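Bumping with the actual sequence this time:
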Amino acid sequence: MTDEHFLHEQSIIHFDFWYTYILFGFAFVFFFILNQIIKRHGTPKKANTVYDSWLWANLCVSLIHGLIVGIWSIISFLYHYEDHPGLFEDPFLFFNTSSFLMMIVSTAYFFYDSLNILVSNMWKKNKEVLVHHFLIITVFVYLWHDIYGIGYTHLCLLSESSSFFLHARKLLRIARFSSDSLKSRILSIINVVAFFIFRLIPLGFCVTRIYPEYFLMRRHFAYYSYLSISVIVIFLINVGFFVRLLNTDFIRRNSYRKQK
């Protein structure tokens, strides 16, 4: 056993695994209750269609998840930056309780959100979201029970810092805020910067870092095959989101102004 493997084993030797299921259950119920409260008391009058009303509640829950996990992931990243092995040094053997529990909470959220989309029969307008959630859930559930590769999940969850601003942008649109207002312009700039820093850079690192794992052979081939394919697909989905964001908030807007 290498020193890094020994340190990983020492990190989890006193870890009580069973309560992660309780945390998963509590987190799932929390997001469900939150959605019900927003539906009954927090939907604006401007969300006057069935889809807008559903989307408002869905985005509000996603916004809160993004806020919680976004702050959590950054604080945990900074606090454990000098751990050995480090997050960027070896994300496969990287482990700490904070990152692990953060993954459990997010797994519960993605599971809840997928069920909400399916049960509400909104899957036709959210196909990309369901594909994204399915890949995340399957990878996270495997890593949850394997207790290896937690560094990869932490890097992926840094993207929730960007999600908070993305969901805020969509909520402003449902509330009929003008896209030419100062708030919308500032939010558009923050969105692009946050998307690049907290989504594309961490996910890009995961894509480039996952392939050397094949040669290390620390887990079986099927594991790495599915993980690498999932990471690439998630990365490509996010690149598509980024292009769409630039097109909607900058390219089209500038073209529309010129036409005026």
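The tokens above came from a reply further down the thread. Residues 221-259 form the longest helix (39 residues).
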